[in-house]
Amino acid sequence: MTMSAEVSMIHPLGPTTVEDWLLEDQPGDGSRLELILGYLYMTPLPTGSHQHAAFRLARALDQAVAASDRAELHVLPGVGVRLSTAFRTGVIPDVVVVDVDVHHTSFSPENVLLAVEVWSPGNSREERDTKIAAYAGARVPYLWIVELPDGQPAQFWGYRLGETGYRQEVYAAAGETVTAPAPVAVDVPTAVLR
Known about the structure:
Distance between the termini: 26 Å
Radius of gyration: 16 Å
Largest sheet: 7 strands, mixed
Number of domains: 1
Order of helices and strands: EHEEHEEEEEEHEEEEE
Shape: globular
CATH architecture: Alpha-Beta Complex
Strand order of the largest sheet: 1-12-11-10-9-7-4
Number of helices: 3
Structural class: alpha+beta
């Protein structure tokens, strides 16, 4: 499955720039203020199950990075990524792997090697598609998507960036362990994401 990096411009860009977004105070309750095509979006406070899945993924990534002896790589939860100045998009993925010093409040997409999004029911299809297209447009090499359907195992998608967008390399929906596309070798036991 290939996802296009094209962003549909049905309506004009919103008035908020990436620089404006960076100056905004993030909510104190754990919800996240993101910028999509120039419009500020408040994502709701992540649920416990959302945070649990993100933590497990971050832990698996951190262990894989440590085992790889790649000291330039760092796993970070919930940091700002300035995806596109032109398209006025800045997001806060659940987890990222970066290849620069961690002492920043936001990161350039050139330094993000992997972004992880755990979708919540509040994330609309349009928001999801726009974020995926923005990651592809910013040339983030790897993307993981997780959904947590009620009463079912976690669903996990692993993508690698190709010439025209993301290509799905891994899908899991029955609690299996998968080797996910990433800057280092990493096995993801999807059963523990629940």
